[in-house]
User: What shape does this take?
Amino acid sequence: MAGRAAEPEVIWARPERAGRGPRPAHSRADIAAAAVRVADAEGIEQVSMRHVAADLGMGTMSLYNYVPRKEDLYELMVDAVSGEYDYPEPSGDWRADVLGLAHQMRAMMLRHPWLPRLMSPVYGFSPNALTYLEYSLRCLDPLDRPYGAKMELIASLNGVVTTYVANEIATAERTRSLPWSAEQEQAVRIGYLGAQVASGRYPRLAAAFTEDSGPIDLEAVFDRALRRTIEGFVAAPS
Assistant: This one.
């Protein structure tokens, strides 16, 4: 297939368009933006070389001259939306700074619900990903830990955000697919749960629900998960 590499390669080390010929009609950024448009509007399942090529008004085979594999297209997409981060001057309070980045990541994933499914260390070395990592480490300059430990903290926080948001998105998608309202669903489930807890078979759950019957503040839960990850890291031996 045209443009497909015979050996492993990094898309960022590849020229914008393989082969000789006239000036490329589309930039790598154009292609990434088209793929992101498709994913945002129709879901990651609809992102294909054919669909993206059609969005750009070009033939599928022509697109392979720019992007040799669908996996490379995914990498372009992740890098493109990673350019949405805002990088203010670090405050000197490294906890506050990395928490701010984590909240930015969550907002970005909610804007692009397909993103958690594509998060991979393989895509961690694109231009915008490297900018993110460098800035994260800069925020952590006041923390007296080796760089390896700081990278572990960044990875742990990213993992918390990705897992949390993936659950948020899955819940929202399920709710949209129901033939009844979310309130109706919740009322039925709470009724069932209340009956089970009241049966006496689950005394600890009964105590837990008596102690705090909700509703759950999901924003506060998210923030606590991040802070506990940070404080657990600080408390752990280096």
Observations:
- The mean pLDDT is 89.
- DSSP finds eleven helices and no strands in the chain.
- Residues 147-177 form the longest helix (31 residues).
- The chain has two domains: 11-82, 94-235.
